Amino acid sequence: MTQTNPGAPAPAAAPPKKSSGLGVAALILGILSLLTCGVLSLPALIVSIIAVVKKAGGMAIGGLITSLLGLVLIGGMFAAGGFAMFFAKDAAHMAKAMAEVQMLSRAATMYANANDNRLPGADWDAQLSQYKESLGEFDDIPWMNAEGEGYVFALNADVAGRRIDEIAKPSRTVLFFECRPGSPPVGGKELLPDQPRFKVYVVGYADGNVEPVEPGEIGKLKWTAE
Question: Is pLDDT of 144 > 70?
Fold first, then answer.
């Protein structure tokens, strides 16, 4: 049995370990990288790696984890922003195309009102050009494609030159529509692009309305006046 000397002083308790200043800095920067949506994630990551290498303890690990989360956060924000810009640009182009078809439809209605309720015919671009001043930006519509050969918008051949009251269902009968670049000014659905420019086709109806139409819905539209 080991005997202790009652007169000997008790051994001193080990002093508590002090937190590493580098580990604390790493953790603080890591937390700040999350609070700033990843802005400080790169410097936080650098400090955290140094702290881990120097064995600065659990706080260094915490700083490393939070800084990595900050990098993921800012990467996700950039990716989301890129997708948002792409879709916003696409939506803006589609809205412009819809406005242009709407303007053509309004001009056709004005023409019909002045011509015994009869829609323009095969030379519709010349017939509607007289309404440029009345419709403001009408002159900016790109009827012709970039090469100047063929049309961007076409008039449905089956309603060209007809009286509006001869059209059985004007709300579903196609009047103007987007066509393949290089198309003639009038025709039918055979002039539609194989793939729509904006994932939908922009179509104007004989009653003046315009809407985007899914490719699968094109077959449900009326292309004849009867």
Answer: no
Query: What share of the chain in percent tops pLDDT 70?
Result: 65
pLDDT on residue 13: 46
Q: State how many domains the chain has.
A: 2
E-state strands within the chain: 151-156, 174-183, 186-187, 201-205, 210-213
150 has pLDDT over 50: yes
The per-residue DSSP string of 3-42 comes to ---TTSPPPPPPPPPPPPHHHHHHHHHHHHHHHTTTTTHH
The residue range of the domain holding 102 is 87-220
91 with 143, same domain: the answer is: yes
Looking at the fold, whether 146 and 201 belong to one and the same domain comes out as yes
Q: Does a structural domain hold residue 40?
A: yes
The verdict on 72 and 109 lying in the same domain is no
Rounded distance, CA 174 to CA 101, Å?
11
Q: What is the pTM of this model?
A: 0.59
Q: Identify whether the C-beta of residue 206 lies closer than 8 Å to the C-beta of residue 172.
A: no
Stated length of the chain = 226
Collapsing DSSP to helix, strand or coil, 154 comes out as strand
